[in-house]
Amino acid sequence: MAPVTELILAPINPAVSAAEVASILDASTQTLLAQPGALRVRRSHVLEDPSKTRMFVDWESLEHHQAFAANAEIYGPFRAAMGPLVDANAGPRVPPYHVEFVPFPPSELDVHAPGTKADVTELLHAYFPPDISDVERDNVERTVREFAVEIGKFADGFTGEMTLGWTVEDDVKFKGEPCRVLVGVLGWTSVEAHMKVRDHEEFARVIPMLRNLERLKGMEMCHVACVTTERGN
Predict the structure, then answer these.
(1) Degrees (nearest 5) of the Cα angle 158, 195, 108?
(2) Residues 217 and 134 in one domain
(3) Domain end (from 45, 76, 98)
(4) Are residues 191 and 144 in the same domain?
(5) E strand or H helix at 11
């Protein structure tokens, strides 16, 4: 059983105060970490859109998370407690999904942790058809890693820290279509440093490595700066 990271995206109800949001998230974090197999919870608002919150839950295995979701006595109240937090008018929710990051855990999300150089984390989603083969996935990963090496040659704000992983699910929606997703977490000193890279003359040379990935349907990118709570803390 491989470890997984559960990714959650929650649009925040504007009627809920910041103090209430923090209280609900604190309680939810403690509930999660009380479950067998839950290792740590990271959370951050999306830096480009503070009305959205991202949570990243490390599990010892997908089966551990599934066991939690199947436990109606605990999971039911957990969902109910999270309910007031979510903006019901924000449109269709993105269901939680799971990523098998290698190596695990994805420490690039632990900004300010000892040994971590990053102050923010780029969260990259690259969407592919559900039937993408193992060989094609290997080729995609290799190209993304080569792209990171090239970026590191001229991007002052890139820390060189990166972890990649594919979603367990092959039905993550992108523009209404089911996809298998390559998720990357990359360390940067700041959002501004990352955005400045796009103005560098070398960026135009290397960005086709991503845009021309075999069978790519599209990409999405945002930044987070997570607070991490470990099990037992």
Answers:
(1) 35
(2) yes
(3) 98
(4) yes
(5) strand 4-11
Question: Can you give the pTM of this predicted structure?
Answer: 0.96
Q: Give the dihedral sign, CA 192/195/200/206.
A: positive
Q: Check whether residue 94 and residue 111 sit in a common domain.
A: no
20-33 tens-digit pLDDT:
999 999 999 999 99
Rounded distance between C-alpha atoms, residue 228 and residue 42, angstroms: 4
* Residue 133: alpha-carbon gap to chain centroid: 23
Q: Which domain holds residue 16?
A: 4-98
Q: State the sign of the Cα–Cα–Cα–Cα dihedral 77, 31, 41, 223.
A: positive
Q: Which two tokens stand for residue 150?
A: 């090239």
Is there a single domain that holds both residue 119 and residue 204? yes
Three-state SS at 73: helix
**pLDDT tens-digit readout, 113-147:** 888 889 999 999 999 999 999 999 999 999 999 99
Of the three residues 75, 98, 121, the one that is the final residue of a domain is: 98
Contact 212, 139 (CB under 8 A): no
Angle between helices 62-70 and 72-82 (to 10 degrees): 90
Q: What is the DSSP letter of 109?
A: G
